[in-house]
Design a protein that fits this description.
single chain, 110 residues, alpha+beta, Arc Repressor Mutant, subunit A, 13% strand
């Protein structure tokens, strides 16, 4: 199954969830998403999502100097971001329940 379209629909929530566990910089977020099973997530998609979530007020950012290269821009959740996780989690759970019901109904008719 091509998960690209599914991923687009839940990337905001996935990024917020990762940052909700611990502040992180862009590539670290990509790594965490991939290690959690979202192997197809693209770096450009994550960076675009970070910019959008920051612009909407869901994320804050700060710069941390790095001895190994350029400074890293870290992202953290704002209260608005925490509210977004709650709302989007409720939406996701309702959607997943609906899909489970549809799939179970189709299996019993088979």
């Amino acid at each position: 199954m091509d998960t690209t379209q599914l991923l687009k629909g839940v990337l905001d929530l996935a990024v917020l969830a990762v940052v909700g566990h611990e502040d992180a910089y862009g590539y670290d977020i990509v790594r965490r998403l991939r290690s959690s099973g979202l192997h197809d997530v693209g770096e450009a998609s994550v960076y675009g999502t970070l910019r959008r979530l920051y612009a909407s007020g869901a994320l804050s950012s700060y710069v941390v100097p790095s001895e190994e290269g350029p400074h890293r821009k870290y992202y953290g959740l704002t209260p608005q971001g925490r509210d977004a996780i709650v709302r989007q989690s409720e939406d996701w759970n309702a959607f997943a329940t609906t899909m489970r019901t549809l799939l179970e109904d189709s299996e019993t008719k088979s």
